[in-house]
Design a protein that fits this description.
By secondary structure, the chain is mainly alpha-helical. The protein is built from seven helices and no strands. The chain has one domain (about 20-100). It has helices at about 1-15, 25-40, 40-45, 50-55, 60-70, 80, 85-100. Helix 2 crosses helix 7 and helix 4 (about 50-55) runs antiparallel to helix 7. The chain is elongated.
Length: about 110
């Protein structure tokens, strides 16, 4: 009986453990989607502090998407920022941006 309770509790723990974002996935997204326009990732990400990136990435990155959608120069990225893919993966991008922000003290290994 104890074994079944243990298995059940283990299953519940795995089921309700939140899926966390990964910095390396965010870096991959940045290189794939953002580097075309923003060139060097390290210099660009370090332009803002942690608080600024957090504000831009609230609500699954809607403020950042709005910023791009209002800018005619960013027309090439409009379809990406309107997609579900962006809102689903924005947590990873947020982690990357915060990890390497101006006041984070971290420096990415490569752009």
């Amino acid at each position: 009986m104890n074994r079944y309770i243990f298995i059940f509790l283990s299953f519940m723990l795995l089921l309700f453990t939140p899926v966390s974002a990964a910095v390396y996935k965010g870096q991959k997204i940045f290189v794939k989607k953002c580097r075309k326009c923003h060139k060097g990732g390290q210099a660009f990400v370090a332009q803002k502090d942690i608080e600024s990136w957090q504000k831009l990435m609230k609500k699954k990155g809607k403020p950042l998407a709005s910023l791009h959608l209002e800018e005619k120069k960013a027309k090439a990225s409009w379809s990406y920022f309107k997609s579900n893919k962006y809102s689903k993966k924005s947590k990873h991008l947020k982690e990357f941006l915060i990890e390497y922000a101006q006041d984070s003290g971290s420096v990415p290994a490569c752009d």
